[in-house]
Design goal:
Elements lengths: L4 H10 L6 H12 L6 H8 L8 H13 L4 E6 L2 E5 L6 E5 L5 E4 L22 E4 L2 H7 L1
Helix pairs in contact: 1-2, 2-4, 3-4
Bound molecules: zinc ion (2 copies).
């Protein structure tokens, strides 16, 4: 679901975010590269094109996106926040060998959690670490 620049501008506006050039470019990067990039990765990828871009701007823009539900923050490691333009509910798996973060779908709404009987769930995050199929395949 690659979006055109006009579609991105419209999407940002619909979420109450004014579409400045850095915001459009940062959203485009997030939406194109589904690798759950960090602030540093986005900054390094865009700083040649947007010479006035700072890491602070990237950080603040991503923060704004999260507040306006244009992106989610993926906190699979304590020391690195990653970002995802897919705001639908999904879990994340991080491979400890290649550091790739994979998306996976699951349904918690039908899950039976006995110790939470009578609780209502608003949001949930699932992080799993392990070794991905590609890295497992490399062993053989
Ligand atoms: Zn791997
Ligand atoms: Zn994701």
């Amino acid at each position: 679901m690659k979006m055109s620049i006009d579609e991105i501008k419209k999407h940002l506006a619909e979420h109450g975010v004014k579409a400045s050039l850095p915001r459009v470019k940062i959203y485009e990067y997030l939406n194109t590269y589904r690798s759950h990039p960090t602030v540093d990765e986005i900054y390094n990828a865009l700083s040649d094109e947007l010479i006035t871009l700072s890491k602070t701007t990237v950080y603040n823009t991503l923060d704004l996106f999260v507040k306006h539900r244009l992106a989610i923050q993926v906190l699979i490691e304590d020391n690195e926040a990653r970002y995802d333009s897919d705001t639908s509910h999904h879990g994340h798996f991080k491979c400890i060998k290649c550091n790739t973060v994979y998306d996976f779908n699951y349904d918690l709404s039908t899950a039976d959690i006995p110790s939470l009987q009578g609780f209502s769930l608003e949001e949930y995050h699932t992080y799993i670490k392990g070794v991905c199929d590609k890295c497992n395949g490399d062993v053989h």
